[in-house]
Amino acid sequence: MTASDLLLQQLINGLSLGAMYALLALGFTLVYGILELINFSHFNVFMIGSFVGLYILQAFGLSGQAVILTGLPLAIALLTAFVGTMLVSGGLGVVIERVCLRPLRTVKGPAAMITTIGVSYILFNVVLLTIGADSKNFPNPLPDVQFHFGSAVLRLREILIWIIATLLMIGLYLFVQKSRMGKAMRATAQDPEAARMMGVEVDQVIIMAFFLGSALAGAGGLIFGLYYNFTSFIIGFNAGLRAFTAAVLGGIGSIPGAMAGGIIIGLIEAMGGQVVSVAWTDVIIFSLLVLVLVFRPAGLFGRLAPTKS
Amino acid sequence: MSGDVSAQTTAMRLPLWTRAIAWLPEARRRQLGLLLLTAAALAFPLIHDNDADIDSAANAASYATLALGLNIVVGMAGLLDLGYAAFFAIGAYAYGILSSFQLMPPWTPFWEPFAWLHLVEKMNQGGGDLVHFTVSFWLMMPVSALLAAGFGVLFGAPTLRLKGDYLAIVTLGFGEIVPIVVRNWSSLTNGAMGLNGVAAPSLFGTSFGIDATPYYYVAIAMVALLIFISIRLRDSRIGRAWMAIREDEIAAGAMGVDLVRLKLMAFAIGAAFAGMTGTFYVAKLQTATPEMFGFPVSVMILVMVVFGGLGSVWGVVLGAVILQLLQSWFLQDLSGWLHVLGDLVGSPFLQKIDLVPSIELIFGIILVVMMLYRREGLIPATRKVPALSFDQQHAEVRRGGFSALSGIGQEDAPGAPLLEIKGLTVRFGGLVALKSIDLTVPAGSVVAVIGPNGSGKSTMFNVATGLIRAGSGSIRFAGEEILGLAPHEVLKRGLARTFQNIRLFPNLTVLENILVGQHARLRTGPLRAILRLPGTRAEERAATEWAMEIVSVFGNRLLPRVSQTVNSLSYANRRRVEIARALASRPRLLLLDEPTAGMNPAETLELAEQIKSLHKLGLTILLIEHKLDVVTSLADIVVVLDHGEQIAKGTPAEVRQDEEVLRAYLGRNSQAGSAGVV
Amino acid sequence: MLSEITASVPTGGLLLEFQDVDTHYGDLHVLKKVNYTIGQGEIVSLLGGNACGKSTTMKTIMGVVRPTRGRVVFDGKPIEKLSTAERVRRGIAPVLEARRLFTRMTVYENLEMGAYTKPRGADFDADLERVYSLFPRVKERRAQIAGTLSGGEQQMVAIGRALMARPRLICMDEPSMGLSPLYVEQTFDIIQEINRQGTTIFMVEQNANMALSIAHRAYVLQTGQVVLSGTAAELRQNPAIREAYLGEMQVAV
């Protein structure tokens, strides 16, 4: 492989990873924007999403790379998997909010964040204890269509991942910008009390933020499985932390920021693994997180919120 | 009636020793409890001669030391640290590398003096002579503590300015980086394979080897030492400052607490506990791998602290011991019992069940359940003070007054300018909050600032006291430029303030709030707090006396309430405590932001008299106030602000006649209604 | 002094009533057995110093703070247990202290948020036209981000936003705060105009004389208690208002 082919290949990989991180980062940003809460349970909602996707695909009789679908059956299987996964993980997010976080909404200090760490631990260990520690082979029903650019390879599944992630992000963006509920979400993020006094049911807005964020995390989990051909109870932590870094990078609370941050982190992971070493990728990403938080806490694209005295 | 009788008979039936305990004064009872606990801990290995159980107990004790360290950071100072295990790793690898065969540079004469100090020895494994590190465990305990503290400062320094939840994420990031570095830097750490052959400690030439008992005693000694240090720190100037930061960072800074320094101190001391424990832990295991120090370990220690009670020294020790023993004893036993039950009922599921791996699930459940239902933990850190009795609440209100307060208002010669503001302009984005303000406060005077809400009065206070660092122009205090100084620096020079919307430390008592006000005037550092020599004791005693002297000025209003937490006080009493807290810092200039807001006429008059008596003592006062009769009766000079600009200045009488003032306050209808108004 | 409180009764039918309302923040007792009556078509002003309970009154009307005792009656029905959204639906709209626009949304989106509880349709369009005709300036700036407007323009948007809910009662929290005298006068003219068009106004104000110049009646609040009330004309004549104004009080010791 020539250097330029290598670069192209890592660009392809980075964009796929980035799409996944962006979906996951959106969940952090939606919840943080409204509640100013870092939601650690999001890490493992993502992980559970990938298992839900796995089981739905298995229900279609798919296993590993043995069965290849084309045409309508493929479309139906994928659509069902994405919709089902997003509904289940979105529902999980809503349950977490309703049961564990709502009672703490008026409590000051780190109580809510500590609770999300606890919830994350519960999800993680329930999967570990019931499904087991070994990683599961993920079905990949896509035909192995490849496009070659020099020695760089672009496969059908990467194109599919880009399309799905782009559609989801455009959908979210339109929802937040144009719909009545989306406007209520933005208003609540800017001034919860004023929004409430306009007649916005803030509880509904918060539930919607958890539902959308968790649903996108579920879609990200499914994409993880399709991309790496496996899933495991352990995938939430690293992906979650990287996605959180992405959200911070783009300015936490900002939806376009989370998308851009996700892509940047995906590219850094792909390129960093190539240029330095895979073993140090995490150090690069965490160092970036620390640097951004220390020197540009509003994110690369964010503006500093005016401080109220 | 019958209830009384049965209660009495129950008391009669109690054994003699129980009644004897009930008769003991509380301090004695506590000493007795401590004595029994120590005796039990010391006797345990003698009574229960099972090496595995003694080993579990030693592990439990070392987790207790970790929990004590994290408790200082999270519980006392309120800094959520999710990467605490990193410091544990640093202490572990420091000893591990310096007492194993991992690093073996070639022998040169450079090493001779170290060999003489028994830090290294010469070795020959067939090739040339090599260096073998043989640093003593006992030396490494304090060295690791210092090393980890150093890393605590290193990690903390860039991050401590961040908001609480960002700090959590950054510490999590550091907590991940350290094990990754350990894993990848194999030449130093042997990577994922782990360090092997770490030397066991030895005492008087006898190695501890693999016998659990000596480790147990070292661990117990560590727990005892760290409990002692934790309690000494908690009950000192340092601990009060940490709790003030936890309760209200902005108010803590404004009361003279150097936020960065105190937070770093908490980070460093917490890290030192972990570093020391790391050395102990690796010496006991005689190996170290990166997996021993990851995120799960940080969370486990956090669970112990949350479970036991954030900020509660005995609570976190109990939490750590219970959870560690749950893991190593109880879950195993329970699994065994379930197997037996499974055999009896013929259930293959029960026969095979193993509950030990579910420990992390239990940790998760504990975190959630504690946060939802018992946030104060097993042993709450703040003790509940009984509410005031009816008599105390309705005791006759005796007005205090400041007849003499040692050291208040005697420093400055009257008349000379004490505070000089020149050309002060403050912008927030496009909005001009203050526009080239000039203001002079002569020593010994009372200057009042009035103006409609939103006219920039509080902004002026915030800039003068360093809370807003965005102004241009000049603010001189006693001739020295203070614009841009941090709040604690401003307070140190003698400006103390109150806040319009009252910023006390809600979960601290009235007395503790006032003691925090003295932070900048006291000397006790962490070392002196721990040693508590006679000098420190005297300082604390004097501080408490000074606090009580100030409290007594407010008469019966505060005196019976000194040990109540301030969140149980009325609005007016909170204002009084805030003024008392500001006075405690022995200010040369007192800034009062609407001191009578929310007070009824009687309370207003009472406070106005107290402020007047302060003025008579010679204290200089700058006052924001809306109630004109208060302003008239107190102020020598009145300054009127409107839209960030000074529109009038003069004596109260002059200002009341000023056309501009009438317009700002009354608008277009001033003619119609002003006759009866001003 | 307190004996001078005149019984103050609205002339038309009742729209909003506070009956012996108490509120608490934790251990703090804020409103103490407070009674207000506001009639249809009135402008009623609530005067008092800082921290006396004015904003808490606002929040109690809007349902952000719930009374611990007593009733809040709107249009003959108790509302103290209803959600804020339901109160907005029934016809109460706020103009918040310091405007509190959604600063990162456009002016039009802010107006839309005002009509959050109303369906889109002819009514919405009519309300929008009404706001635009009251405030031609707002129409000009409808596509602009609200945070970039001047203070006076923001006040217009805030009032327009309240009108978009087609309210029967508008609650205003310190409409004069932070505005230059010119804008204060404009704002008060608009308030009178809106009131003439049939909307009842309840207004918390520190600028007492200004408020009394347009109000029909007023209440004076002090440490959570109503210490004075009456028609605006009476209160302007009452020497006690001198003390009440700016919270000034003289007390016999």
Which secondary structure elements does this structure contain, and how are they paired or packed?
The complex is a heterotrimer of chains A (309), B (678) and C (253).
Chain A: H1 3-35, H2 41-59, H3 71-101, H4 111-130, E1 136-137, E2 146-149, E3 152-155, H5 156-178, H6 180-190, H7 192-197, H8 202-228, E4 230-231, H9 235-250, H10 255-275, H11 281-295
Antiparallel strand pairs in A: 1-4, 2-3
Helix pairs in contact in A: 1-5, 1-8, 1-9, 1-10, 2-3, 2-4, 2-8, 2-9, 3-8, 5-6, 5-8, 6-8, 9-10, 9-11, 10-11
Chain B: H1 2-13, H2 16-23, H3 26-47, H4 51-76, H5 85-97, H6 112-116, E1 120-124, E2 129-133, H7 137-159, H8 164-184, H9 186-189, E3 202-203, E4 206-207, H10 212-234, H11 237-247, H12 249-254, H13 259-285, H14 295-308, H15 313-345, H16 348-352, H17 359-373, H18 390-393, E5 417-428, E6 431-442, E7 446-450, H19 457-464, E8 471-477, E9 480-481, H20 487-493, E10 495-497, H21 510-517, H22 526-531, H23 534-553, H24 571-584, E11 589-593, H25 601-616, E12 620-624, H26 628-634, E13 637-642, E14 645-650, H27 652-657, H28 659-666, H29 670-673
Parallel strand pairs in B: 7-12, 7-13, 10-11, 11-12
Antiparallel strand pairs in B: 1-2, 3-4, 5-6, 5-8, 8-9, 13-14
Chain C: E1 14-22, E2 24-25, E3 28-29, E4 34-39, E5 43-47, H1 54-62, E6 69-74, E7 77-78, H2 84-90, E8 92-95, H3 107-114, H4 122-134, H5 136-140, H6 151-163, E9 169-173, H7 181-196, E10 200-205, H8 208-214, E11 217-222, E12 225-231, H9 232-237, H10 240-244
Parallel strand pairs in C: 5-10, 5-11, 8-9, 9-10
Antiparallel strand pairs in C: 1-4, 1-6, 2-3, 6-7, 11-12
Helix pairs in contact in C: 3-6
